[in-house]
Structure formats: C-alpha cells, structure tokens
Q: What sequence folds into this?
C-alpha cells in the first residue's frame, strides 16, 4: 500500500490490533562518507516541492510514468494551497560524475511560519541545505528566517536560483543579492528551472561536493531524533527519525526519552518515497520507525529514541512542547453534532500533536470546545479538514490569544478566552504576548508599512538592507494585532511585494480591559474581547453598529450594549417588527384604538422578558472585519 494511502487513511480510522507484516529488505550498510543528509529551505511558492519532484525523477527514485506534481505533499490541502504542511523524508540513490554511489536523504520541511518548530527539528537532522530563491521574487522574509535557522544549525548552504525560465526573472540581480548576503561568489550560484529541469543535475553534484557526510558512531548507545510523525491505522504512530548515534533494528525495544514510553517497533524502514521496510538503520541514516503507539502524543517531534537496554545517558538537545499561540471556540452548528465534533477532533489530534482542545460552554452557542493552534494558518487548515474529512457544520468564534493575568494575591493565570477573565477587582495587571516581526519590502512601500504597524501598536526596532532597493524592517507588535487581517492589509498596501515572518518575544503588561457585549441585557460570552483601553471606545462603537445590522428584528425592541471598564461605551436598539393592530378599525371612537395599542404594548413588554434573541454566525466573526472600516 502506498505511503499516501497510509497517510490519507490515518485520520478517522480506528486502530486495529493486527498488523500486516511486510518482508524487510536487507540493504548493504552505506559508508558514512557516502551519505548526504540535506533539506530544501525557501519562502512559500519559490519552487521547493517542484525541485524535490525533479530530484526524485533524476535519481530514478520515482519513475517518470508515475509522476504527479508535489509528490511529497500527500494531503489534498497541500496540493491546493501549494504549501507543505507536514514534513516528509525520502532516500535517493545517486551515482555521481566521479563514479561513486551516494545515499541522498532529502528531508522536506513545512514552508509556513506557523510550523517553525518542525522546520527547526528537520534542520537539526541535516548537514546541508539547498537555499532556493525565486528569480522573479528575490529574497523574502521566510527565506531569511529559514536561512538564519540553517546557519544556526551549522549547515552547509547551497544557494540555488529557481524559475529562470520566467519572463520576469532577474537572475543577475538576485544572484548579486544572494552573493552579498552569504559572502559567496555569484558565479558559483546554481541557476535552474525546476519546472523544465534546466541545470538540475548540477544541484545533485553540488550536494555531493558541498554537503559534509554525517559525523556519527555506531559503537555508541542509540540516539535517534524524531523530526516528524504521522498516525497509521495499521502500524500506529510512524516516527520519522535521523539516527545520530548507534543502530536501530525492528528487534530492539526502544524508549522515548521525554515521554518515558517503552515500545517494541513493528518495523524499521526508509521512504523511497513509499514506506519500505529494511533490517535496520545505522548512524547517520534517515528513515522511519513504526511504533504501534496509538497517539502522536507518545512520540512527539523533537524527542529522542534510545534503546531500553543500554540506553543513552541524555537526550539530544532542543526538545520542547509545541506552544499554541492562537485560540478559538469551535461549536457545532447543530447541538446534536457535539459528539461527532469531539470524535473528529480526537482523530485529528492523532496526526497533529500541536492541536490542543478542551470542552467549553457558551451561553449563546451551547456546548463546544476551546482549541489552541500554532497560528492563524494552522487554524484555517484544521477548520478545512474538519469540514472536508468529517462533513461537519461548525461555528468558529473570532480567534484570540492567551494572556497572562497577575492577581493581587500573587497568582498568575493563563487566560485563553475573554470569558475566563477574573473579576476586575482581583486583577493587578494583564500581560499580552508580543512578537518580533520582520517585514521585507521594496523601499517604495516604507511609508505605508510604517503607518500600518504604528496603527497596530507596533514599535520600531531597526532596519537592514539585505539587497539594493529592498529593506528589512524589524518591529515589535502585540500578537493580538497581527492574527486577524494584518498580513492581508500588508499585502494590499505593498501590492503583494512585502513578506512577513514572526517569532514570539515575551509577555508584556499593558492597559488592557474586557469588552463585553450585552444583548437584551444578557452578556454574550462568545462576543467578548480583551482590548487596549485606548481602543475600547471606538471598537465598542463599531461592533455595536455592525451587530445592529446583523441581528434580525424581533417582535420586541432589542437593546445591544458594549460595556468596558464598568461603563456602557455604546448602545443601539434593534427596532421591533410592527404588527398593525389597528388594521381592523375603520373609524370609530379613538379610545378603542388606544385600548388596542395599550394591549399590544403590554404583550411586547411581557415578550421582551421571556423572549430569546437569536444571534447569527456572522455576528461572531464581525470582530474580524472591524479594522476594515
């Protein structure tokens, strides 16, 4: 069965207790000097996956007749969005021009900033990196972010200029930029077209010549780095590993050093690119270990595998738990779907350990879940997978960030939802997460970007010029200001030329308060937000104006109020739909008309006391559109 089938069926399947045994292949152990472990780093849409496809064809790993675009991207979403979401690995056998046979292990990394931790683990598993730059776009923010991460991991960098076949290509200009950035002669930079295959064989030769072989020792106790994993319905968790020291076989009992789990592997193998069982992986090699575990939480990215017998003294450095940065409420549109939503989230979590969720109850939306995501793009991917793979109709509340709340008694709470904020009298200070952001843009758009960041409470740090006519602007900005539509506005103000990268900096105290929305006198917890005091007044006013348009008219007047800092900031009334009770009066005494109107007035007053106001889903996302006006 193909690897893509395994990965596609990994979500939404029940783990079964039997395993289909596949015969292991005995491969000759390669010499360490003939192993090359490398990855491809690039900004989104610079041709990383296309280059990987071309390398697979040139080395004969995948026959030309079996070709599909984005071979290593196995999810439909990856193909549609053109973004690698899950890392993958593949082994290629290549005979170089000097006649020697080499084992090339390509570790394909995610391309989006939300998956930065996975990228960092994949980089540690390599000795070299291909830095791919689009000949028409030039150096962009994630190009630099990933380059700095690769340099920090002490990798050999091979610069490659891609898409030289485009009419808008500027290979000379881009090669000068890369040469000045890396301090290498521009003549040595390989210029290719991954789409046409132009000069791609030169890339393979550069990998063999410039990427150093791994430094490893099979005589030491086993230490293997998990740089990714996925769930398989038959073999449990498949961990993608780079063996740093020692050797691992399917007969060894292994130990996960951070989670403390012991397991006997079902099989050990390599990706070529399908899963191919082999007898064992030696030091310096890359492959997989099918553990049989039922959740990726037991075998996390960044963990170290060692043998249960004769274990290593300490794990490999750099392991950390993925930390969610963006939170949102997920509620079933129909209350009966609650159990289906829980099961769907459980199954998604089998494959994605960075997704966290817990039950939550809302007065307005009923029973649901508060889920944590690595970023807004990660949230979008989860939302689309829930809709496509599980056919669920859901309400997602506006995304929020986690705040640190210091109480007067010295306790510190982490608050992921505005509804969880304690009473104002108990709070000493509220701290919000701040990010370091890097924006790379043509110098023409310097002014509009400064204006945008200043409006979002950002502070200027410094600027650099990685290339002529391009500037890198470094700012600090609250995460709450960039999670919604900051990137869209940045693109529109710079005609799509600016690129963005961000990293978490710290939590900082500020003048923050809870903005509550009352509908018919009742607080709607799902519409609450934590805002800066100086923004509370105009945000409250705009929110009320928008809600007045969205909430349907009832048979009674509905008051909508925004409350912040213990006072009503804004109020509007949704007028009642009127029934003409005088229609049957054709003239006659005025007292009869007054009696009918008085009766209607009493009825509406009684209805207002017991009536429920239905709030449409658009209202919960209205907060996203406040900045557009």
A:
């Amino acid at each position: 069965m193909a690897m893509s089938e395994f990965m596609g069926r990994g979500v939404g399947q029940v783990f079964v207790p039997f395993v289909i045994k596949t015969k292991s292949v005995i491969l000759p152990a390669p010499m360490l000097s003939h192993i090359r472990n490398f990855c491809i780093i690039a900004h989104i849409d610079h041709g990383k996956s296309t280059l990987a496809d071309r390398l697979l064809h040139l080395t004969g790993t995948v026959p030309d007749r079996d070709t599909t675009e984005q071979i290593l991207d196995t999810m439909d979403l990856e193909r549609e969005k053109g973004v690698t979401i899950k890392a993958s690995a593949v082994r290629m056998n290549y005979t170089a021009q000097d006649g020697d046979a080499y084992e090339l292990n390509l570790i394909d990394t995610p391309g989006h900033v939300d998956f930065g931790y996975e990228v960092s683990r994949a980089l540690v598993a390599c000795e070299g990196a291909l830095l791919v730059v689009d000949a028409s776009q030039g150096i962009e923010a994630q190009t630099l972010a990933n380059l700095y991460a690769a340099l920090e991991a002490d990798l050999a960098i091979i610069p490659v200029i891609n898409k030289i076949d485009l009419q808008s290509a500027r290979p000379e200009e881009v090669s000068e930029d890369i040469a000045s950035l890396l301090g290498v002669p521009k003549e040595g930079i390989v210029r290719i077209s991954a789409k046409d295959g132009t000069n791609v064989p030169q890339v393979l030769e550069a990998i063999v010549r410039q990427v150093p072989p791994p430094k490893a020792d099979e005589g030491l106790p086993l230490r293997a780095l998990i740089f990714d994993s996925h769930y398989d319905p038959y073999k449990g968790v498949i961990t993608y590993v780079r063996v740093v020291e020692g050797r691992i076989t399917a007969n060894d009992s292994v130990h996960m050093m951070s989670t403390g789990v012991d397991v006997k592997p079902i099989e050990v193998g390599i990706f070529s690119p399908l899963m191919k069982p082999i007898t064992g992986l030696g030091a310096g090699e890359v492959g997989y270990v099918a553990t049989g575990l039922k959740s990726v939480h037991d075998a996390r990215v960044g963990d170290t595998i060692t043998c249960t017998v004769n274990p290593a003294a300490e794990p490999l450095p750099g392991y950390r738990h993925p930390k969610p940065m963006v939170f949102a409420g997920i509620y079933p549109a129909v209350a009966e779907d609650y159990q289906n939503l829980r099961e769907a989230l459980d199954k998604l979590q089998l494959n994605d350990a960075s997704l966290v969720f817990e039950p939550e109850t809302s007065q307005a939306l009923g029973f649901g879940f508060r889920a944590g995501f690595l970023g807004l793009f990660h949230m979008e991917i989860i939302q689309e997978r829930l809709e496509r793979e599980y056919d669920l109709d859901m309400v997602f509340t506006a995304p929020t960030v986690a705040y640190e709340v210091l109480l007067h008694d010295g306790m510190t709470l982490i608050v992921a939802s505005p509804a969880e904020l304690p009473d104002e009298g108990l709070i000493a200070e509220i701290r919000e997460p701040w990010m370091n952001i890097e924006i790379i843009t043509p110098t023409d758009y310097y002014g509009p970007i400064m204006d945008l960041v200043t409006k979002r409470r950002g502070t200027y740090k410094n600027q650099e010029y990685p290339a002529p006519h391009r500037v890198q602007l470094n700012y600090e900005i609250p995460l709450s200001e960039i999670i919604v539509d900051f990137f869209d506005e940045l693109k529109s103000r710079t005609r799509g030329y600016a690129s963005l990268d961000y990293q978490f900096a710290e939590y900082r105290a500020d003048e923050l308060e809870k903005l509550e929305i009352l509908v018919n006198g009742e607080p709607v917890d799902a519409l609450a937000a934590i805002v800066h005091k100086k923004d509370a007044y105009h945000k409250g006013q705009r929110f009320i104006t928008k809600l007045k348009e969205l909430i349907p008219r009832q048979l009674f007047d509905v008051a909508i109020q925004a409350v912040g800092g213990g006072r009503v900031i804004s109020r509007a009334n949704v007028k009642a739909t009127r029934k003409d009770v005088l229609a049957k009066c054709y003239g006659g005494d005025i007292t009869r008309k007054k009696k009918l109107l008085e009766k209607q007035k009493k009825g509406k007053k009684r209805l207002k006391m017991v009536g429920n106001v239905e709030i449409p889903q658009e209202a919960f996302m209205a907060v996203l559109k406040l900045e557009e006006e």
Q: What stands out?
A: Residues 590-610 form the longest helix (21 residues). The domain at 513-628 is CATH 3.30.70.2570 (Alpha-Beta Plaits). The radius of gyration is 29 Å. The chain has five domains: 31-210, 223-307, 326-392, 404-510, 513-628.
